[in-house]
Amino acid sequence: MRREAVREYLASALWAMPTAAVVLALIVGAGLSSVLVDPASPLAFLLFEGTADDARNLLVSIASTMVTVIALVLGLTVVALQLASTQFSPRLLRNFLRDIPNQLTLSIFVATFAYSTAGLYTVGIASGQRTETYPRLAVSGALLLLFVSMVMLVFFVHHLAHSIQIDQVMKGVEKATLRVLEHSFVEGDPQVRLPSPPDGAIALPATRSGYVQAIHVRPFVEALEALGMSALIVPIVGRHVVAGTPLAWVWNTDDGGRPPLAPRSLAELRRVILQTVRVGYERTLEQDVAFGIRQLADVASKALSPAVNDPYTANQAVDHLASILAASAVRQHGPRAVEDGQGRVRLYVPARDFDYLVELALGQVRRYGANEPRVVRALLRVCRDVGGFGGEAHRAVVRRYVETLLDDVQRVVPQAADREPLLAEGAAVLAALA
């Protein structure tokens, strides 16, 4: 759990990769400074041919140029972050911070600056005295980094111009959410009913406030089995918890008249539950499919606001949501009953159902865009497509949504020329779903 938390933090830390690049540049520079190439060697053409003063002037010029370029890159990055926050959704900032090309570009620029600056300590100076002997191969390395930095600058401008396009932003969210469904989603069982904690159940409280980022149940189940206990986890992934409120309830279910839970055993359960349920200051996409859906729903809702009034962007967001809902419809959603090694249920884990995901994805779009025929047609198209996936229970959820959408259309679309075609198309979708 700690390794995953550190990895998730470093993935969105803009300083992590540049720091590693600086360390690597210094190591490589030290290594090249100790390499001596014979003038008669076939590799002699790689050596810098200028004087020591030429080499120092070159390194000074590269270092000063990199300072300017780094300031430019950081400024452009901040502009992109502000644009994404104000125009699309503030929840998309995390995606820009995690963007590998942005981190890689900044890392190369910082590494070039550190490499060139560190070279000034050795080029033309030896034991405090001027000398014409210097690591020529290392100076050639600075020239190589300079050319790489110029290429990366052009690439960065190209990438930044594409990354702030709304199509690219929404496609990135869709791909990240589908990746969560593919690799991190654990199917539930709609037939499972979460129990109420019995009298005498013990609460295991949260030690910090924040959002539930991930739940890994196996260590907790093993601890419960060893103590003969059962438990119910209270929050779902993505839910906010307050320090001191229960993360889980535990109670004794094994026969044999076990004595009350010892303080040492209770302390062990409190330690394990903090390893099982990770709480952080922000939501992440590790296991939280609803967070990806929330980001796209935010884009659609903002596009439908009177200040923006951009229904086509809302339609695009709905199209991306259709891919996520279709991938969700072929999976079982709901709570889980986790068994121990002996096949006995030890832990109940709550989770969102498919009805919640459909409402999260399309509910706000329906409420804000029911009076716009193009948005309604996009929603009907999504419902028809998603209804082709999954089973009858999933289609029933989609049918209920379409019925509610048609009720809104009947109520808020005043012109019969707009309203009647929408109602007819909705009736055809309901017939197809039936």
From TrEMBL:
The residues forming a coiled coil are none
The record's section on Pfam families has: DUF2254
Domain of life from the UniProt record = Bacteria
Keywords in UniProt for this one?
A: Membrane, Transmembrane, Transmembrane helix
So where does this one cross the membrane? 12-37, 57-83, 104-126, 138-161
* Keyword hit for Transmembrane helix: yes
Q: Which InterPro entries match?
A: DUF2254_membrane
The reply on keyword Membrane is yes
> Species name for this entry?
Sinomonas cellulolyticus
User: What is the protein name given in its UniProt record?
Assistant: DUF2254 domain-containing protein
